[in-house]
Amino acid sequence: MLYHAYELQRSWLNSASAFASIGVEMLNNPANPFNYIGPMGYMNIGPVAASALEVFAHATASYGKPAWNLEAIEVDGVADSVVEATVVNRPFGDLKEFYRENLPDDAPRMLVVAPMSGHYATLLRGTVERMLQNYRVFVTDWADAKTVPLHEGTFDLDDYMDYVIGFLEHIGEGAHVMAVCQPSVPVFAATAIMNRDAHPCAPRTLTMMGGPIDTRCSPTSVNDLAMDRPIEWFRHNVIATVPMQYRGAGRRVYPGFMQLAGFMSMNLGNHMMSHYEMFKHLTVGDDESAQATKDFYDEYRSVCDMTAEFYLQTVQEVFQDHALPNGTFLHRGKRVDLGDITRTALLAIEGERDDISGLGQTKAALELTPRLDASKKRYYMAEGAGHYGIFNGSRWREKIAPVVEEFIAAHG
Predict the structure, then answer these.
(1) 83: which residues sit within 8 A by CB, 6+ positions away?
(2) Same domain, residue pair 195 and 325
(3) 324 domain residue, yes or no
(4) Which NCBIfam families match (predicted)?
(5) Which residue range(s) make up the domain with 365?
(6) Judging by DSSP bridges, how do beta strands 176-180 and 109-113 pair with one another?
(7) 48, 74: one domain
(8) Residue by residue, what is the 3-state secondary structure of 56-91?
(9) 25, 43, 61 - which closes a domain
(10) Please, which residues bridge with residue 330 across strands?
(11) How far does CA 192 lie from the centroid of its chain?
(12) What is the CATH number of the domain that holds 344?
């Protein structure tokens, strides 16, 4: 009944959000008597009430899959159009390609592996936009599990790695890979498999950003939650069945709204202050600042479901058994040996203030590849950056992205 209860609550809140939006329009109308008190001028009753209702309407609205909206980027002060295309279509995830029209034909190709952790790949819009300056960018656009019919089968960590390998085969030889957060583990394992098999499409470089390679290093509250409860607790308490109104009806999933609730509760005070600041910006007419907050939460609250098998396997293998650093991680029943990585150069990036993947968790990857030459390894710690700031925002654009580009140029 978990999913049905959520849908019932969502329908109520949608109605409340619609009524609040109507109230905003009425209160902001210049003819509203609450805004005017004769020759003494305007008073703030209308604008203040309208601002409060607008914050409420925005906070309770439903959000679908966001658009990429990457129509053009500025390179050296000149706007350049961006081409977007879906080049591989598969049930549980597509491969999208982005490139700017005036990009040189011999520009390096990069696969950005987006997290399958409750948000859409568009969360990496800022990451892709920055990389488009010098690269032909491919992105894994994972599907919302509730939209995938049951006849398409299951999707777990093995399938995730197979998808990544298949996408790299489509891109061709000489590609570079960037794994953001959660995919660092399966992409790291897939890289080991491709190195072991001397696969011609094995990536030349792999950049892992804020990934839970070894969660025993500086464990965070996310890690503690996974360790404090047995896997059966997760199976019985956070897994739900997709309702009949969706194409994936009957599929067992970890709902995106559960993941969002967890993330919001971790920093509830900060989120409340962000909405209070938005209210103040709206009250004084600072629409630009208010819109920046709205844009962030439009993306942040756009969530999607994960298949139950993928979620449960990730919790157990990554956070409870630490299978990858312990050398017990399997792919299709065969052990993955990280010592097989001898060709792909590795860059590990961490944020100083990351409260999702603590310091040392991603860096551990460099210590788990004993046969890879030290000249092909690099570590970078982004000072002052939180988890989101590693791949988005000014620190990403001005401090972190140049490190990635320099590393790729050195090993490309």
Answers:
(1) 97, 98, 99, 100, 101
(2) yes
(3) yes
(4) PHB_depoly_PhaZ
(5) 70-220+303-408
(6) parallel
(7) no
(8) HHHHHCCCCCCCCCCCEEEECCEEEEEEEEEEECCC
(9) 61
(10) 335
(11) 23
(12) 3.40.50.1820
Q: How far is CA 85 from CA 80, 89, 141, 328, in A?
A: 16, 11, 11, 38
Q: Is 144 or 267 the better-scoring residue by pLDDT? A: 144
Same domain, 77 and 160: yes
Provide the b/e sequence for 186-211 (b: ≥16 CB within 10 Å).
bbbbbbbbbbbeebebbbbbbbbbbb
204 and 311 assigned to the same domain: yes
Domains held by the chain: number = 2
In terms of domains, do 7 and 92 share one?
A: no
- The last residue of one of the domains, among 34, 61, 88, is 61
DSSP secondary structure code for residue 396 in this structure? I
- Alpha-carbon distance 304 to 295, whole Å? 18
At 73-113, the pLDDT tens digits run 988 888 999 999 999 999 999 999 999 999 998 999 999 99
Domain match, 92 and 56 both: no
Q: How many CA atoms lie within 13 A of 18 on its CB side?
A: 7
**DSSP per residue over 300-326, as a string?**
HT-B--EEHHHHHHHIIIIIIS-HHHH
97, part of any domain? yes
Q: Is residue 227 assigned to a domain?
A: no
- Helices 256-266 and 221-228, packing angle to 10 deg: 120
The DSSP-derived string for 28-51 is T-TT-GGGB-GGG-B-SHHHHHHH
Terminus-to-terminus CA distance in the chain, angstroms?
52
Which residues have C-beta within 8 Å of that of residue 247, sequence separation ≥ 6?
Answer: 146, 147, 148, 149
- In terms of C-beta density within 10 A (0-12 exposed, 13-18 middle, 19 or more buried), how is residue 145 classed? buried
Q: What is the pLDDT of residues 175-211, one digit of tens each?
A: 999 999 999 999 999 999 999 999 999 999 999 999 9
Of the given ranges (130-139, 259-268, 344-353, 367-376), which has the lowest mean pLDDT?
Answer: 259-268
Same-domain check for residues 355 and 215 = yes
382 and 323 in a single domain? The answer is yes
CA distances from 110 to 94, 136, 177 (A): 15, 6, 6
Percent of the chain with pLDDT over 70: 82
Residue 77: per-residue pLDDT: 86
Contacts with 179 (C-beta within 8 Å, 6 or more apart), sequence order: 113, 187, 188, 206, 207, 208, 209, 211
Structure tokens at 100: 């700017």
Residue 41 has what pLDDT? 43
> What does pLDDT average to over the chain?
87
